[in-house]
Amino acid sequence: MRFRQAIPPGPGLLPEDAYTELGLSERATGKRPYVVCNFVSSVDGKATAGGRTAPLAGVGDKAAFHLLRTQVDAVLAGTGTLEIERYGRPIRDQRLERVRLDEGRAGQPFAVIISRSGQIPPDLPMFADPRSRIILYAPPGAAVPDAPAQIIVHEGDPPPENLAKVLASLRRDHAVKSLLCEGGPTLFSALLAEDLVDELFLTISPVLVGGEELGVTAGASLLSPLALTLVWALEHDGNLLLRYGRC
Ligand SMILES: NC(=O)c1ccc[n+]([C@@H]2O[C@H](COP(=O)([O-])OP(=O)(O)OC[C@H]3O[C@@H](n4cnc5c(N)ncnc54)[C@H](OP(=O)(O)O)[C@@H]3O)[C@@H](O)[C@H]2O)c1
Q: Does the C-beta of 185 come closer than 6 Å to ligand 1?
């Protein structure tokens, strides 16, 4: 598979040439990790079709999704997404683990879970896997699954509702310099509201969904529209793979 390079123009790229050696950790400040988010959307801005992302994700998007996981110290997803998408250990392909190791990262990124309610989906595949490295931010007394995974728990310190403090803890306590947020729309919007997003990788899938499906963002509007700059536009099989930075 090759991606067509629309912006900037070029002869085409293999997915592993586009989505490796991105140097995301090098962009971290001392206060928090560098934060990139990744979404797939329909042409009409929906993040789901029939409540799931799978109908939107083409092979190019799937390749980008998995390669982005090789580029970060930690992967974050909201509890809604973890439950619906049945999250397991982030890296399950040895080839991708090798990419991480070759670029000087641990074979597995941390999987980060943040819950203000303490309602953590107990039966996620990631909990059953001893190679999962999970960092959980939850209120005191949350039911932490008793499972084979390696789970580090922050109970109420920092408060899980304060995302800036949680990100500062990831940087300070766990040396996380780069964080990939894979959604969902509620958690993404909460990060945007606290101005904690540095980049957005967005695939636009060539379908219309319509109806009441979730959009890429959810909840209250941002105080003002957030301007983005287009870093690249790739294309595969009618899918647009866009990378946006901050202006
Ligand atoms: N198209 C895509 O690329 C894509 C990507 C991801 C997900 N999705 C889809 O999106 C859906 C799930 O998204 P969702 O928006 O319902 O849920 P979500 O964003 O995945 O998770 C929301 C949960 O995150 C937790 N959270 C922690 N800190 C928070 C904070 N400061 N503010 C808000 N929430 C915080 C909350 O749990 P507590 O209540 O315990 O605090 C909240 O209920 C699924 O259907 C999934 O398939 C699509």
A: yes
Domains and CATH numbers, the chain: 4-20+30-246 (3.40.430.10)
Evaluate whether 12 touches 3 at the Cβ level (below 8 Å): yes
CB 17 within 8 A of CB 157: no
Decide whether any atom of ligand 1 lies within 6 Å of the 52 Cβ.
yes
Tell the residue nearest (CA) to atom 29 of ligand 1: 187
Question: How far from 61 is each of 14, 72, 105, CA to CA, in Å?
Answer: 13, 18, 23
Each residue's pLDDT tens digit, 30-54: 999 999 999 999 999 999 999 999 9
Per-residue pLDDT of the chain (247 residues; tens, 9 = 90+): 999 999 999 999 999 999 999 999 999 999 999 999 999 999 999 999 999 999 999 999 999 999 999 999 999 999 999 999 999 999 999 999 999 999 999 999 999 999 999 999 999 999 999 999 999 999 999 999 999 999 999 999 999 999 999 999 999 999 999 999 999 999 999 999 999 999 999 999 999 999 999 999 999 999 999 999 999 999 999 999 999 999 9
- Radius of gyration for the alpha carbons in the chain, expressed in angstroms and rounded: 17
Minimal-distance CA residue to ligand 1 atom 34:
187
Distance between CA 12 and CA 29 in Å, rounded? 33
- Does residue 48 have its Cβ closer than 6 Å to ligand 1? yes
Strand partners, 234: 5, 241
Q: Is the CB of 74 under 6 A from ligand 1?
A: no
Distance CA 246, CA 113 (A): 25
